[in-house]
Amino acid sequence: MGRSTSPRNVASAEEPIVYVVDDDASVREALRNLFRSVGLRVEVFGSAPEFLQSKPPDVASCLILDIRLPRQSGLDFQTDLAKAGIHTPIIFMTGHGDIPMTVRAMKAGAVDFLTKPFRDQDMLDAVTAAIERDRNSRNEAKIHSDLRARFVTLPAREREVMARVTAGLMNKQSAAEIGVAEITVKIHRGHIMRKMAAKSLADLVRMAQTLGMQGDAP
Amino acid sequence: MLSPLVVVIVWPRSAGPDVKSAAMRKQTLKSWRSTEHSLIGSMVLALLAAACTWFVLGPAIAGYLVAIVLLIGLLLASLIMMRVLAGARRQMEAAIEGRATAEQRAIEALRESEAQWKEVFEHNPVMYFMVDANGVVLSVNSFGAAQLGYVVDELRGQSVLKVFFEEDRDLVLKSVDVCLTNIGQTHSWEIRKVRKDGSALWVRENAKAVRQLDNRLIVLIACEDITERKEAENALRQSESYLAEAQRLSHTGSFGWRVATSEIVWSEETFRIFGYDKAPSVTLDKVAQRIHPDDRARAQQTIDRASRDGKDFNHEYRLLMPNGSVKYVHATAHAVIDASGDIEFVGAVTDVTASKRAEEKLHEAQAELAHVARVTALGELAASIAHEVNQPLTAVVANAAACLRWLNRETPNLEEARSTVESIIKDGDRAGDVIQRVRAMVSTTADQKVQLHVNEIINEVITLLQHELFSHGVSLRMELAPTLGSVLGDRIQLQQVVLNLVINGIEAMQPVMDRPRELVIRTVQAKDDQILVMVRDCGIGLAVENADRLYDAFFTTKSGGMGMGLSICRSIVESHGGRLSASGNVGPGATFQFSLPLYQEDDSL
Fold this sequence. Notes:
heterodimer, A: alpha/beta, Rossmann fold, Arc Repressor Mutant, subunit A, 2 domains, five-stranded parallel beta sheet, elongated, disordered N terminus, B: alpha+beta, Beta-Lactamase, 4 domains, five-stranded antiparallel beta sheet, rod-shaped
C-alpha cells in the first residue's frame, strides 16, 4: 500500500493519442485540426504500414480508420492489429453503402463507426469514449500484470494456501487439506496478504478472481 | 436544195417545141428560093415580049418600046435587087443554118442533161414528190418510192398521206397548206414517214408550191432521209436527258471555267443548285454572291489559288439562298490545259445538303446515344462519385467544427482559424470540381473540340473511378508519358472513351481470383504524330470468335451490359481522326488502345 503508483493512474500519466489513418490528405488534415482544436494529441498516417512503423507508445489511444484504404482495407488492417496484439480501440469511418463492411468491423471489435461526413461532436464523443475504454483496459491490463507479478513471488505452498483461502475454506480446512498445522496456514496467509498487497480477504478474493484462480484449486 | 426542184420544173415542159422551130426555118428558106426563081422567069418573059413587039410593030411604036424598056429595066432592077437580096439571104441562110446546128447541138445537150438529171432525179438519194393541192401524188422518183418500199406506180395517184403515220397526218396537211398559201416559197420541216412494211424513217422535207401552166397548183417536195442523224440526235438528246436526269437525281451539276476569259458555263442542275435562272454564262461575282457570307472569303481564297496555280481543287461551302435557306455544296474541279495553253477547269458541284443534314442527324443521334451511355455509366459510378464528393465534404465539416472551436477558445486562436478556413475553401473547391466534372459528363453539349492534354483527361476520369477500382479490388498503375503533345478534341467525349475502357477493364478482371487485378493505363507519343492511349487489364481476355463483333452495337458478353460502350468509343475516336483497337495480351487479359492525331498549331480546320 506504500506504492506510489496506483494501478488506476498508470495510463493517465501520459496524454492520450488519437491516431488517424486515411489515404485522403484533406480528411486526414481536417481531423488533425479538429482534434488539435480540442487539445487532443493526434498523429495522422496515410496508410496502415506507416502507422505500424511509427511504433506507437504505450499510452491510452484510439485509432480512427477509413474503412476503404488503398491496397489493404481497414478491415484487414484490423485483423492484422489484433494478430499483432495491438488492442487499440478502432473507430471506423465509412462512406455510404458500406453496411456489410460496418457489420464485419463491429463484430471484429470496432468500438464505433461514423459515416462520412460526421458531426464533430459525434467524432469527439466516440474518441473520448474510445480513449476511456483504452485507458480502462490498459489499467486492467496493468493491474493484472501487477497482480501476476506479485503472485509469482509467492512460493508454491503459499499459492496453495491462497487458492484455498480465497476459495472460502476455513484455515482449519485448508490445513487439513494441505496436511499442515492450522497455525502454519495462518502464517502463510499473513505473508500472502502482505505480498499481494491485499487490504482484506475480500480484496484477496477479487485478486484471485482477476488472476483466474477459481479453478486453480488443486 | 433548189436545184433539183428547178430540174423538176423544167423537165416536163421541154418536149417538142424546138424540133418544130427547126422545120419551120427550113420551110421559110424554100419559099424564099422559089420567089427568086419566079422573079427571074418573069423578067425573061418580059424581055421576050418586048423583042416580039419590036419585030411586029416596028419602031413606030417607040412609046411602047420605052414602056417595054422601062419594064425591062424595072425587071432588071428587080433582078439586081434579087441578087443583092439573094446574097443577103444566103448570108442569112448560112447564119440560120449555123444557128440551127447550134440549136440542134444545144437541144441534144439539153436532152443529154435531161437524161442525166432524170437519172439523178430517179436515183438521187433524195425522195422527190410532186403532189397536187389535194395531196394526190402526181409523181415520185423511183428512189423515193423504193425508200418507202414501194414501186412508183403504187404511189402515183394515191394520197401522199399514205406514207405518213396516222398521228402525223394533220401536221402534213398543215405543212402542205402553208406551202399552198405561200406560193413559190420553200418550206421545210422534219417528219416521220412510214414504209410499206410499217417501219419508220425520219425525213427532212423541203417543199414549195408552184403554179403550173394550166394554172393548177402543185407542191414539189424533196425529202432527205435524216433517220441516222435523227437517231444520233435522239441518242444525244437522250444521253443529254439522261445526264440531266442523273445530275438532277444526284444533285450534281457540272461547270466549266475558262480562267483567262473568266467565262463560266453551268449545267442546268448547277443553275438549279445555285437558284439562278438559266443563262448562257455566269460570272464569278454571281457565284460569290450566293456563297454564305461566313464561307465567302474561304471559298474565294480557294478559287483565287486555283486560278493562280491551275491545279485541281475541291472545297465545300454553304450557299445562302434568297429565301434564307442554307445549302451545303461540294465542288470539285479538274484543271485542263487547252490547245492555246489556257487553263480551263471542268468540275462538278454537288448539293450535299441532304447528306449533310443526315450526317448531322446521325451525329445528333450518336451524341444522344453517347450521352445515354455516359449517364448510364455515371449511374453505375454513383457510389464512386458520392465517395469523391464525400471526402472533401467530410474535411469541410470537420474543419468547420475545428474552426469554431479555435474561435470559441477563451483566447480565440485566429491563426489556426484562418488556416482552417483556407483548408475549407480548398476542400469546398475540390468537391465543386467533382460535381462540375460529373455535371459536364451528364451534359449534352455536343462537339466542342478544343486543344487538350490526354493525361489530364485520364486523371480527371480516374478521380471518378477511385471507388470503383477499390470496390472491385483493382489496383491501378498509371504510366503516363511526362511530355505529351496536345490533341484537338472534345473533353467529355474523350473522357467517356477512357471511362468506358477502364470500366471494361475492371469488369474483365472480376472473375480473376488467382492473381492481383492490375489495370495499367499508358500514354505514349508515337513517331507518326499520334498519341497512343493504352488500357491493359489482366482479365478474361478476348475470345477470338468475338473479335470481329467487339465494336458492334448491342454486342456484349456482359450480363448487365447494353453493348454500346465500345461501339460508342469507336465512333468517338474515329470522329477525332483516330483509331480504336483491341488485342489480346501475351499473358492474361487484353489491351485496348486508341490513337489520336497530335494537334499541330498550323492545323487549319
